[in-house]
Amino acid sequence: MAIVRRQPIYEKDRLSPVDPSAALTLDAEWLARFPEGYRYLAYVQSKNGFTIKTGLPGLRGPAVEQLYAEGKAWLEGSAQPGELL
């Protein structure tokens, strides 16, 4: 038995300071560029120079619908994970 595909579904994230007395100041316009499910993770990573993929599966939308359709097809016998029948 093996894992044939691993794809997280980004539901919700947050950014919390380690020191509860610290106040975070974020660039609201920059933050709004990223999808809701991984907005804060993407914000921090982009500020550190990483390229952020948009369109990853969240709770709603075409990316998660596609992911579920691919999983269903695989369970029904498609040759490869990620291929629809």
Key words describing this protein structure:
elongated; mainly alpha; 85 residues
Annotate the secondary structure layout.
Elements: H1 28-31, H2 39-47, H3 62-75
Can you give a write-up of this model?
There is one protein chain. This protein is an all-alpha fold and 85 residues long. Helix content is 32%, strand content 0%. The longest helix is centred in the C-terminal third of the chain and has 14 residues. The protein is elongated, with a radius of gyration of 17 Å. The model has no long low-confidence stretch (mean pLDDT 88).
Would you identify the regions where 5 or more consecutive residues have pLDDT less than 50? none
**Beta-strand content bin:** under 5%
Q: Residue-averaged pLDDT, rounded? A: 88
Q: Any idea what the shape is?
A: elongated
Give the class from helix and strand content and strand pairing.
mainly alpha
Quote the distance from N terminus to C terminus.
Answer: 22 Å
Helix content: 25-40%
Short précis:
The protein is mainly α and 85 residues long. It has helices at residues 28-31, 39-47, 62-75.
